[in-house]
Amino acid sequence: MADQPRSKHITGDFRLRQNCTDSRRCPIVGEHQILELISLGAPLPGILNKLCMMIDVRIGDVVSMVSLPDVDENRFCAMTRSALQVGLEVFCSSAILSFDNLFLGSLEIFGCDPRQPTPLELLLIDRVTYLASLALQSQKTEDHIEAPSIKPRGKQVGPIEKPRFIN
Hints:
Shape: globular
CATH superfamily of the domain at 43-146: GAF domain
Strand order of the largest sheet: 1-3-2
Helix content: 40-55%
Largest sheet: 3 strands, antiparallel
Radius of gyration: 22 Å
Distance between the termini: 80 Å
Structural class: alpha+beta
Number of helices: 4
Order of helices and strands: HHEHEEH
CATH class of the domain at 43-146: Alpha Beta
CATH architecture of the domain at 43-146: 2-Layer Sandwich
């Protein structure tokens, strides 16, 4: 039926919501869903893939990926080499840093054409990098909470004895 209202959300459109210069305060369309996934503890690979899709769709003719420092460096170098062998150019590489400026990973973007990102694309990349930082830090926090270290309270002199019941 042609008279039905169309959805207000356009799934493939990841525009910046407003003109702003601070990427940490300038939300992008689709960001609410990403923040919700992070807060719900969704699997990290799914969140990072959605962030890469935001860049790929919005910029167009690019392929992006997030590389983590725990992953084998040789695999990352092999993927970069493969991208260059098929004719992709390095479009942008951005470090993903924690709030303490610790290296969490990198966002690598390859493009079909050799060019530099526009100022608006740089804002998008900065915002996606910031969201990736939130996701990675959230995951590290969850990992720390799920596997707490158990420390005995007080001094333990000998082996733990079973409690004795006196009737």
